[in-house]
């Protein structure tokens, strides 16, 4: 990791801190900011699942170039002005905005972890996909670890002891819990948790604490609007006042026990009261609540006025759970080549599709690793859910893209994989068990970013898509197990393993499962070509049909026992046979031959660069010897998303995705 040009320890004693650009006058080495929207400078912009944002007009109207930066303000906020007074240009940037190239340099100057909507308690803001104080401190722990690695423990400890740790938090805890059933117990719990957090920061090297107490939040416009007289809500202000007193006591007690700890506690209640009493003494300020509603799109003003538990006491526009048109926070994909969007490009396997003529109809005719002439079913389902296309492969993510992408979704699907770990084991692909282990890594990182509660909420609203099982049947058929007893045992084993996989994902937070069952795989060109008549191989189709029935029963049983679980099971068997019976209704003319390949029905060889391929691809059901064309995938996705119970049950994917949001 690149080391920033920091001069220790002599530069600190003179009040100068070296930076990559030379020396600049600063009064502290670094500023680290924690809290809620009162000091958030854009953290929530990087949380696609967050509903608490301000990165839209008219926020930022008085910021340089009128940019809505994510600050819940018309311009700069308190963190910016405090940073300026300490010799910085403005507040340090959000932790989540840092890249590989900026991270090592910036952490030596300071970082903001503040997240609008968060609180001292983990439960506060958990429904809004924000980062609670506990998780903010976990992020700082990563920064502290990197500082230790860069400059060594003594220098890092000295550096942190001279830095300022700014904390502005607590309003949302009071909003969300008002009125508390037991006010004294609530303040006691809040204070106890705050002690734990400040103590943890002290253990990590913090010594200078700047605490901004909760202001008279009952006087915010969103709360005054609920009072017929337009006056403040005294009950909220009383809790804020008592919490200030409790915070004062805890800081006094804590600093007497912790060597070197210093603190400043800002009395926001007294400050605001002073403005109320002498408004004209303060430039551009007034005692009456302002026109904060003017900063909200008109269509959202009414809901803002109704909100008793505003995230920060300001009039926030809370957009839908997902941003930019998404109907779910994230999409996580598991399975085989039917939904693989390039995982195997990163594996030493021969089961790949990252060469022509694959991708001939993809933008710029790029062979992406999809086993298709263009997009696949995962892409079209993702589009239906409001995304641009399928999320990228887990193995494609880098340090700079990982943290941003995991909140939107990831694909773990690997061509050649199966339900059983033994399936595809000879081909160096990622088995289902390993795919779920990869997801567990993603979940752990989400928890580190936003906390346990917020992660559980996001995952419960996300869709987990599965398309797997064909390769298990292929491998089993090649083993020669054809008698009824062995077939039944094989299906039992597949179902049992599927149950294990789904149950594990449920334990990890998944609640919405979209399952695409195995189609009549005996009708693929790879198998038809072995039939003298060119017909389907019924033995393979029989197993696929029985597996669908067993999966239906498994899901029905599992959902009745697993809290909050919902599922949609796509009947690929029924969908494909419907095309067979009515091909012209869907624009298909060729149902038996692959568009790309070699040999009989183009089913003897894969779609290699030297293979022949058709020009009228939209009229073919099969792209290669195993996989559907882009046209067939598009039809399947539309049917899964909007279809009736004949094709997808007990609900379609649209109801699964949108019904709970």
UniProtKB/TrEMBL annotation:
<dbReference type="InterPro" id="IPR036514">
    <property type="entry name" value="SGNH_hydro_sf"/>
</dbReference>
<dbReference type="InterPro" id="IPR035669">
    <property type="entry name" value="SGNH_plant_lipase-like"/>
</dbReference>
<keyword id="KW-0443">Lipid metabolism</keyword>
<dbReference type="InterPro" id="IPR001087">
    <property type="entry name" value="GDSL"/>
</dbReference>
<keyword id="KW-0442">Lipid degradation</keyword>
<dbReference type="GO" id="GO:0016042">
    <property type="term" value="P:lipid catabolic process"/>
</dbReference>
<protein>
    <submittedName>
        <fullName>GDSL esterase/lipase</fullName>
    </submittedName>
</protein>
<dbReference type="Pfam" id="PF00657">
    <property type="entry name" value="Lipase_GDSL"/>
</dbReference>
<comment type="similarity">
    <text>Belongs to the 'GDSL' lipolytic enzyme family.</text>
</comment>
<keyword id="KW-0378">Hydrolase</keyword>
<dbReference type="InterPro" id="IPR051058">
    <property type="entry name" value="GDSL_Est/Lipase"/>
</dbReference>
<dbReference type="GO" id="GO:0016788">
    <property type="term" value="F:hydrolase activity, acting on ester bonds"/>
</dbReference>
């Amino acid at each position: 990791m690149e080391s920033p040009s920091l001069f220790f320890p002599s530069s600190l004693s003179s009040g100068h801190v070296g930076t990559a650009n030379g020396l600049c006058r600063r009064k502290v080495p670094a500023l680290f900011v924690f809290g809620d929207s009162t000091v958030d400078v854009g953290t929530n912009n990087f949380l696609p699942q967050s509903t608490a944002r301000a990165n839209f007009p008219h926020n930022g109207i008085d910021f340089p170039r009128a940019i809505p930066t994510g600050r819940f303000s018309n311009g700069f906020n308190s963190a910016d002005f405090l940073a300026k007074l300490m010799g910085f240009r403005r507040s340090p940037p959000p932790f989540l905005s840092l890249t590989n190239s900026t991270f090592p340099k910036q952490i030596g100057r300071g970082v903001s972890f503040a997240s609008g909507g968060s609180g001292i308690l983990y439960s506060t803001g958990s429904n809004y996909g924000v980062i609670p104080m506990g998780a903010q401190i976990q992020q700082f722990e990563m920064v502290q670890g990197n500082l230790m690695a860069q400059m060594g423990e003594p220098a890092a400890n000295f550096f942190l002891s001279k830095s300022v740790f700014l904390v502005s938090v607590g309003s949302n805890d009071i909003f969300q819990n008002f009125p508390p059933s037991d006010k004294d117990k609530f303040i006691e719990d809040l204070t106890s948790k705050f002690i734990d957090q400040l103590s943890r920061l002290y253990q990590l090297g913090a010594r200078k604490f700047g605490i901004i107490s909760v202001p008279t939040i009952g006087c915010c416009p969103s709360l005054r609007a609920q009072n017929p007289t337009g006056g403040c809500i005294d009950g909220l202000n009383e809790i804020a006042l008592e919490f200030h007193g409790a915070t004062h006591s805890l800081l006094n007690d804590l600093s007497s026990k912790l060597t070197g700890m210093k603190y400043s506690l800002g009395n926001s209640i007294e400050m605001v009261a002073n403005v109320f009493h002498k408004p004209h003494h303060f430039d551009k300020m007034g005692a009456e609540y302002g026109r904060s509603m003017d900063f909200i799109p008109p269509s959202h003003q009414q809901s803002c006025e109704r909100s008793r538990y505003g995230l920060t006491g300001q009039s926030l526009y809370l957009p839908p759970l997902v941003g930019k048109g998404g109907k779910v926070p994230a999409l996580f994909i598991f399975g085989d080549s039917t939904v693989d969007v390039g995982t195997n490009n990163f594996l030493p396997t021969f089961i790949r599709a990252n060469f022509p003529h694959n991708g001939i109809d993809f933008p710029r005719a790029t062979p992406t690793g999809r086993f298709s002439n263009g997009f696949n079913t995962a892409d079209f389902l993702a589009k239906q859910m409001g995304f641009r296309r399928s999320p990228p492969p887990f193995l494609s993510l880098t340090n700079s893209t990982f943290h941003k992408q995991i909140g939107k979704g990831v694909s773990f699907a690997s061509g050649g994989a199966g339900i059983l770990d033994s399936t595809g084991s000879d081909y160096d692909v990622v088995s289902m068990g390993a795919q779920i282990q990869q997801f567990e890594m993603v979940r752990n990182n989400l928890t580190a970013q936003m906390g346990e509660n917020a992660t559980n909420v996001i995952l419960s609203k996300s869709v987990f898509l599965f398309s797997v099982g064909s390769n298990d049947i292929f491998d089993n058929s090649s083993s020669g197990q054809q008698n009824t007893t062995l077939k039944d045992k094989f299906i039992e084993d597949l179902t049992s393993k599927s149950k294990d996989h789904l149950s594990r994902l449920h334990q990890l937070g998944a609640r919405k499962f979209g399952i695409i069952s195995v189609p009549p795989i005996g009708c693929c060109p790879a198998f038809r070509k072995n039939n003298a008549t060119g017909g389907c191989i019924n033995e393979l189709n029989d197993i696929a049909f029985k597996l669908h029935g067993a999966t239906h029963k498994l899901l029905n049983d599992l959902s009745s026992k697993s809290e909050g679980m919902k599922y949609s099971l796509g009947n690929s068997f029924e969908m494909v046979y419907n095309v067979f019976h009515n091909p012209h209704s869907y624009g298909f003319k060729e149902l038996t031959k692959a568009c790309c390949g070699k040999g009989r029905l183009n089913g003897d060889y894969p779609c290699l660069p030297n293979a022949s391929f058709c020009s009228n691809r939209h009229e073919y059901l099969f792209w290669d010897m195993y996989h559907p064309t882009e046209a067939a995938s598009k039809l399947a996705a539309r049917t899964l998303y909007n279809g009736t119970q004949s094709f997808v049950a007990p609900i379609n994917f649209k109801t699964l995705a949108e019904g709970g949001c």
